[in-house]
Amino acid sequence: MTSLHYFWHSALNFVFFYPLFMSYLWMIGALIFYRKERKEPPYQEPAALSSYPKVAVLVPCYNEGDNAEETLTHALALQYPNFEVIAINDGSSDNTAEVLDRLAEKHEKLRVVHLAQNQGKAMGLQAGSLLTDAEFLLGIDGDALLDPHAATWMVRHFLEDETVAAVTGNPRIRTRSTLIGRIQVGEFSSIVGMIKRAQRSFGRLFTVSGVITAFRKTAVHEVGYWSPDMLTEDIDITWKLQRAGWDIRFEPNALVWILMPETFNGLWKQRLRWAMGGAQVLIKNIDVLVKPKLNFLWPLMIELILTLVWSYLMLIMTIIWLLHFIIPIHGIMGEGISSPFLPYGSGILLGATCLIQFALSKWMDSRYEPNLFKNYYWMIWYPFVFWLITVTASIIAFPKVLLRGDGKRARWVSPDRGVRIND
After folding, report:
1. Theoretical Cys-Cys bridge with 418: which of 75, 206, 262, 407, CB 3.0 to 4.6 Å?
2. 156 lies in a domain?
């Protein structure tokens, strides 16, 4: 076997077995987490707390004139005895300011802050946090519908343990009018929810969900608040808090209903931003690998690096495989290799693993959406649609971040959002 042939087969095995290994690791970790989760009361009936410290619901809004009233109406319906809602108009150019001011006249629990120009979500969150005397901040997006019991489920973690800096909730998808929307319903269960359960079982979270996370203001202040130059402020604040020694938890009973892109263009913009945010965090935090005191973050960093390597390896192998049909490259792929991605006969194993993961995740999340299994059929398209987009975004994101430079303010506009379904 030549060295090139050996490299090809080693790379082939890594490309195939790495996602397979991670899938089973996620399933095992999620099941460990679920052993306790399934013993909880229904999410509509949270246990009473020993006390109810004040909570400030922060809602940064940029051009959310069409969604702000619905979002704030749900936030103001929070079934928690001690809270206020702060809406931050982040220099919107539409009618967001008028909508917010009109609502503030009707609701004494609602306060409105107007920023003169668009500063980005990170600065919006910081502005809101500085205007409240509440120790606990619950951040949601300007188009998100908060479940009435979310604050109670999240605050209990802060009362249980003073080292908890943040509690991230459980986003549920409202947009389901297209194939992309239906697939994302399954994705947030089989991928996002399962990974958070597994990561929490094994120690640390890679990121909180920007659409619903509660923070201890003392901890956020200690690490310098959210970074205005990071494209994904939620990933960045997660790493800042954990590096400082704070704990972060996942609370699946804290629900929020969100809108997601339902076109390829909107999905691509979203996933590219996510990938660029991940690349920024990798570059910013790569030093944890040489700091033994931060060894609890090594698994997350190693996974992030391996995922990036996996994406580029997929690109390299695809190019070599395509070139092989134009200019035969002897001694690399060997005999009997018809695909650059799957060892012979392994397609069945990969497909079965995907189906098992999707079924397991939907079973766990059926506590929150009883009819979730009706989207199971659509998940067969996930590997074809989302893997391609995710791999491509990861490949493009890293050089874009390197070229972007440091210190540039991160501003973004929500991509297209589909038809709202509130079932």
Report:
1. 262
2. yes
pLDDT tens digits for 35-53?
999 999 999 999 999 999 9
Q: At what angle do helices 194-202 and 3-37 cross, to 10 degrees?
A: 90
- What token pair was written down for 325? 């049909």
Same domain, 233 and 113: yes
On the 0-12 / 13-18 / 19+ scale of CB atoms within 10 A, 348 is exposed
Give the domain range for residue 113.
53-262
Cβ atoms of 299 and 307 closer than 8 Å:
no
Question: Taking a C-beta distance cutoff of 8 angstroms, is the pair 27, 352 a contact?
Answer: no
Q: What is the pLDDT of residue 420?
A: 39
Strand ordering across the sheet containing 145-146: 110-115, 83-90, 55-61, 136-140, 212-216, 164-173, 247-258, 145-146
Residue 118 belongs to domain with CATH number: 3.90.550.10
Dist. CA 175–CA 177, nearest whole Å:
6
Q: Does 267 fall in a domain?
A: no
Give which of 410, 416, 420 is closest to 118, Cα–Cα.
Answer: 410
In terms of Cβ atoms closer than 10 Å to its own Cβ (0-12, 13-18, 19+), residue 243 is middle
Neighbours of 141 (CB within 10 A): 23
- Claim to verify: residue 107 and residue 247 sit in the same structural domain: yes
Q: Angle at the Cα of 158 (from 156 to 164), degrees rounded to 5?
A: 135
Q: How confident is the model at residue 335 (pLDDT cuts 50, 70, 90)?
A: very low
Question: 378: closest CA among 391, 362, 364?
Answer: 362
pLDDT, one tens digit per residue, over 282-312 is 999 999 999 999 999 999 999 999 999 998 8
Q: By percentage, how much of the chain surpasses pLDDT 90? A: 52
- Asked if residue 32 is part of any domain, the answer here is no
- Residue 227 and residue 309 in one domain: no
How far apart are the C-alpha atoms of 64 and 109, rounded to whole Å?
A: 20
Q: Could you tell me which of 274, 299, 264 has the C-alpha nearest to residue 209?
A: 274
Pull the structure tokens for residue 320: 């070599």
Which residue, chain included where needed, has tokens 């089973």? 24
- Distance separating alpha carbons of residues 294 and 243, to the nearest angstrom: 7
Strand 83-90 relative to strand 55-61, pairing: parallel
How far apart CA 82 and CA 109 sit, in angstroms, is 10
CA distance 62 to 141: 10
Confidence of residue 10 (pLDDT cuts 50, 70, 90): confident
Token pair 């343990």 is found at: 161
Please give the tally of structural domains in the chain: 2
